[in-house]
């Protein structure tokens, strides 16, 4: 395989972005190293932990399992695209209110995975939330507070009539 760099174009958090990538470059590294979106974390690089989860064309994807060139032409949403400090996404608000994190390393990936879950199932049971968390590893919280945070997010969405889709990106905040 050639290592010659290729131009990769994608819409990230509502903005057209373009950068060069070697064919072997993972989407996770492309987002962090080429686009400076370091809110997407890398915990394992072997598709175990889910810290790298982003939305690609509306579906939650572990970005260490996808090459950057495979994401060419797609719409990608990272944690920077779902809300701002002054206008938190309901998922972020839920994590804030229910203390759904400790060290925070897993948190961006967990939130993106849960947004993906709610895109498919807007009103999951606690069991379904726990099943949805199977693909993400949190080493700190014991998951109880994460489940409560997701339930709070669902409650906020119901009370504010605010839809979940991550495509409804409201801005970009560099972390
Ligand atoms: S870094 Fe992608 S799953 Fe762990
Ligand atoms: S809050 Fe530390 S790994 Fe989840």
UniProtKB/TrEMBL annotation:
Location of the 2Fe-2S ferredoxin-type domain: 6-82
Annotated GO MF terms: 2 iron, 2 sulfur cluster binding; metal ion binding; oxidoreductase activity
Pathway: Alkaloid degradation; nicotine degradation
Keyword list, A-Z: 2Fe-2S, Iron, Iron-sulfur, Metal-binding, Oxidoreductase
Protein name, per record: (2Fe-2S)-binding protein
Source organism of the structure: Siminovitchia fortis
